[in-house]
């Protein structure tokens, strides 16, 4: 592939012209005859250089990106993922959802299909933060399925519930499409503590596995050490980070979009300041950032993602609604599913605000962030 960073060498004619220009400044031409030496003129002090304006910091290094053109790239499970890696991911997913799963799967052991089973199942779903609406929907659908298919074994009921859960979560399963613009600008939001900056670093590495060049913008200028944290991920992934120690986050991101366009970067991800949805004046700042991105590049941002912490349960659903109303979300990244007893929150999101879940995270490692699959998630949740 050709590199986006093309280096141009001047022609011989341009070099000769430059020599003539420099010689002319000294009062001679390249063809001039030799003359008698004269006393040197009094040296003229060079003019003081102008004071440079305060500029956005470009934190290098940035590797030469690979030229993939504007062909669409669909982010599905990684292109080079052998069976062993797949099993490893499913094992980590099941381990992460074990607490939620144990509350659900135990109901179907040594029991019979009666009203007590449905009541226990209702309690378990509510405890997993599936929410009232999703719980009622699943139970009503399950009762009908048991009647219509004349199910008599509790394990058959569990399989039926798994089928219904897959159908409920399937609308959340959507691939992230790259290559629609250059750069593809992604604005990433989330409250402090949700794992936003860490998810950006992991996602940058994930995109690089699809041969995408990446540039990061440290737009979280209010949180202490947010810039440094993103810079560490930039160094780790060999990715450029555009940042300022302080200032307007919209201005930092505007500069980053310009830098990404000049360098022909594939994907530019903007880290935005953590916001609580109840802080209306701060949410307005995010709206401003989105408007400024649109001025920096027509049609941008192409993706507006929200990072949510699965452990916050129904509060995460509240965040999804608030940020979606303010920004128009295109996707979600659900973090910290490892060890949570509230994995049912995805069912609540699917029922009340079905925004695509592009990625889920079940650990601290880079490979612990993977595309969401409704079937894999349902199997892990119900011990399939």
From TrEMBL:
GO BP term, example: SRP-dependent cotranslational protein targeting to membrane
Gene3D superfamilies hit by this protein: P-loop containing nucleotide triphosphate hydrolases (3.40.50.300), Signal recognition particle SRP54, nucleotide-binding domain (1.20.120.140)
Keyword Hydrolase part of the UniProt annotation: yes
InterPro entries: AAA+_ATPase (IPR003593), P-loop_NTPase (IPR027417), Signal_recog_particl_SRP54_hlx (IPR013822), SR_rcpt_FtsY (IPR004390), SRP/SRP_N (IPR036225), SRP54_GTPase_dom (IPR000897), SRP54_N_sf (IPR042101)
Chain sites annotated for binding GTP: 190-197, 271-275, 335-338
Membrane-topology descriptor: Peripheral membrane protein
Region of interest called Disordered, as start-end residue ranges on this chain: 1-69
Positions of the SRP54-type proteins GTP-binding domain: 356-369
Gene Ontology molecular-function annotations: GTP binding; GTPase activity; signal recognition particle binding
Subcellular location: Cell inner membrane; Cytoplasm; Cell membrane
Recorded superkingdom: Bacteria
Cellular compartments per GO CC: cytoplasm; plasma membrane
Pfam family, one: SRP54_N
Keywords in alphabetical order: Cell inner membrane, Cell membrane, Cytoplasm, GTP-binding, Hydrolase, Membrane, Nucleotide-binding, Receptor
Name under which the protein is recorded: Signal recognition particle receptor FtsY
Species in which this protein is naturally found: Paraburkholderia atlantica
Lineage of source species: Bacteria, Pseudomonadati, Pseudomonadota, Betaproteobacteria, Burkholderiales
Gene (UniProt): ftsY
